# Entry
Amino acid sequence: MRHELEKDYICPAEAWKKLKLAKNAGSTVYIYGATGFGKTELALQFLKGKKYIYLTCQNGGPDLSLVPGEKQSNDKPALPVVIDDIQFLDAEEIRREVIALMDRSDIWLLLLGRGRRPLWLAPAYLKDGFFVIGEEDLQIRMDEVQAFFRKKEIDVPQEAIGRICTRGSGNAYVIRYLARKLLEGREFDGELEEETERVLEHYLENSVLVQWDPELLDFLMQVSVVDSFQAELAEMITGSHYVAAQIEKACMIGNFLSEKNGIYTLRPVLRTTLYERMERIYGSERVRECCYNAGLYYEIHDRITEALAMYEKCGNRSRIKELLISNARRNPGNGHYFELRKFYLGLEEKEIENSIILMTGMSMLYSLLLQPEESEAWYNKLKIYEQKAKGGEKREALRRLVYLDIALPQRGIRDIIQVVKKVPALLFDKGISLPEFSVTSNLPSTMNGGKDFCEWSRHDRELAASIGKLMEKVLGRYGKGLVPVALGESLYEKGGDTYEVLSLLSRSQMEAEAGGMPEIAFASVGIQVRLNLLHGYEETAVSLLDSFETRVKEQNVTQILPNLRALRCRLALLAGDSAAVQEWLREAPAEEKEFFVLERYRYLTKVRCYLFSGDYLKACALLEKLRYYAEQYERNYIRMETGMLQAIAWYRMGKAEWKDVFSDALKCAGSYQFLRLFSEEGAAVLPLLEQVKKEWKAGNGAEKKWFLRLLEECRKVAVRYPVYLKRQIAELPDFTENALAVLRLQADGLSAGEIAARLGLKPETVRYHIKQNYRKLGVSGKADAVLAARNLRIL
# Structure
């Protein structure tokens, strides 16, 4: 029989259920959660109307002498003993006495604390076990809030209830405060939400923080200047050598500090309370000191965005400018241009005009922000500066101008050969070197990397022989391995000899790894992965990627990892692994917030994810942005790729315009003799190729030959990866026992007639199940159905 509850009590059903189970089992129960989640209230409401003993560990407690001695008779029910605030229990002797109470059959022990299970309870937990009711069990669910408001006759819209639960994280204290205000006639709006948060902050400061050890409180106030911290960062901020002990104490004293992979995060409401308390008690100078120390830590660890945020917080403008200049010396692949755009754009124009490096950086930044006019304007200012400068400043300005002549994205590849040929006379003969370059922008490609080199593919062997050595000399270590990987990629795209392609890519990788740049090695590995996947060697492709990722992590070349993980996602798409795809989407860039050109490889991966999940409108919206970028910056490869993907989306949506877009992309690819851009898309693009094959077969000899080879290769890839980019919504409950039996026997190689005989079904019934299975799996044949079912773990 359920207890009669207080009229204002919101009962967390999950916690109540576990408490009943613990009581029926006669097992000790440990209840934990942060302030306001109703630990004590839960226990007392559950015990209402019963005899029990309540003890607290505050103020030198608990007084265990109040617990009666052990009784031998088991006639009477066990006496509930509640020991609250065990986070304050430090005395070893009393801890041992509490553990001894757990062994008594005449007592039902309820332990309450703010932190997760204390370490000193671990041996007892491992020995006998006990129930644990955590904060997630204490959180008030949406349906429980609705029921509470209905009982109070408070009319709150569904959307507002959702916001209440989210804002309050299921905290009963927050929800009950809001209920009182709503009963007083207040509207649920942003003002009331903020007021509720302030009330909780006030409660924390005046009822919770005052109970904490002053040394711990001081530590937590100082680290509150950052969103999250590692032990090393906390030591830098506080100057304390006892950080580990303070962190352990903080975890023990309350469920306010969460940890994941060695990174600690304070609850937002507590962090705000601590930060405001530090400002009030210690003053702004101490806050600035902590922020500066945090900024230094971030700067040392190349976390430039966070470093600048800290320096801005402490008002250190000189450090901000120094960091921006330091970052502008880097190429876009290694720098943080997009992340730091707020700081760059906040500089005074005069500040920029007095710095060669900042003018170079602004020209590059505006180019990356798709504002080529502003980019050229800063280039021209730098040119005027160079004409007036003398000595070392003139040489520095000149090398930066040559760098921009080659590297500015909006200029495409026009005049690059002429610029490169002039570099020895302009710079090298004067003892001037070029700044660092990013040839690939950390993409697994050179042809479609920092710039689009499709046009060079028309004369790939001649260019490799004529200017290859000069390019490597001009780019220095940034060009080691560039020529073989560029030639290898060009031949691969055109369906060149596999052995020659692999030979070039292997040579490039070895050169890049022997004193070159990891980004060139990544391009080589990326194309090797594509080649192996094309021929069906999935294990080899995965092994290549695994080995390279290990080396990259060992060298701490973190800028490559986002695109490497995107390449892994493309492998998952080939296999129809929806779980891996969803996992990657959690880290994918949000194109709806702001479009950034250096994210183009991940954007194109995301388009494929949208096609896989059937989100065709989202795919089209992102493709439109990519198409605009491709047109503005002469990106022919991306123009073809977006055209192909747009056609796939429109074809699936039933839009007749797909054929025109597809034909344009095909013609462009055909003009370069590119095969792999299309054939790698296999099952996704094959239906479209089949639709247009009649027109292409009627074409001239070269076009027809190219198309027929493309079609043949695409059909082979479609057989190898039949579920690629196919929306799969079938699940195990969608299939009857007979349907599953039919599918299993098909996988064993039985014909429809043999299956009918084996299962005792009519042949027509078996054929019906086969047809329905194909429909549910989104396939058209037995082999595809079996593979799709295995990918979905139905078989």
Notes: Residues 1-5 have pLDDT under 50 and may be disordered. Residues 3 and 49 are 8 Å apart (CA to CA). Residues 701-720 form the longest helix (20 residues). The radius of gyration is 33 Å.
